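To whoever is on call:

I kicked off a structure prediction for a single chain this morning and the downstream step that reads the tokens threw a length-mismatch warning. I double-checked the sequence; it's 288 residues and nothing unusual in it as far as I can see. Pasting both halves so you can look.
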Amino acid sequence: MREITVGVVAPAYVNVPLWVAQQRGLLERRGLRVTEQVLGSTHGVTNALRDGAVDIGLTAPEGSIADAVGGGPLRVVAGLIDRPPLTMIATPRHSNVSDLRGGRIGTSSLTEGTRHVAERMLAEHGLSYPADYDFAIEGSHIERWKALQAGTIDAALQMIPYDDIATDAGFTSLGPVTEEFALNAVCVRVPAQRSVVTPFLEALAEATEWFRDHIEESAAIAAAHTSVEPHYALRACCKLAADGVIPRDLRAGRGALAAVLAALRSSGLIPPEAPDPIVTALDDSYLP
């Protein structure tokens, strides 16, 4: 049995396929025993992958794309989330997006993940960074929920099921993310062992298909991995199973990747004249 470590940001519901693969023995059937390492932030996973502290990362792809464009060893080998199951949640004193002008928006990183999704979402409502608001690095959606409750931030994008938990607690929903954006991906450091990565992706793909046909059972698995009440777990899994959220073949959608590249370029994290970042950073040859 091959022991591998998979770095994740948090026990987030975007990792349900991994939990299903573990629970149903889909990884062990392929000779893999996986240990999850929770690293608390997207850049934490990216750094651990670059340093060799984890074998595979399930995280926002921006860090790996920027690394590859800069000549580094990180690559994106599969997509996990093409339409982020996120909602902008604000403290109760805010009733609309314009109320966030001059506020603090919680995020897990200034270079990856929710920062870019939030920036694009707020721009649609006429708010631009840094003129109209500041970002506050708070960590994963779990830490952002704590910050919202403490009132140290004005709003944050919240992952399922914390969006429902927050609104049920009286916090304000300013609407879900509706655009395509590659929020979560499978990333590796090359040269990666194909005998490990491909079976891992096979197990994830099988788990994803099983998940879609067994929402209630998957919700029970997810609830056991988190401190979330079962009815919230079920609501979250129903949202995760919606069309367009998880790519069916684990091939990240071109529209979702294009949104990531636009964010990286607008933030200056990759130069506009760089060679095609998708050609450089994406290697889907590991997919089954």
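Update from on-call: the warning came from a stale cache, not from the record. Cleared it. Sanity check on the structure: The domain at 86-176 is CATH 3.40.190.10 (D-Maltodextrin-Binding Protein; domain 2).
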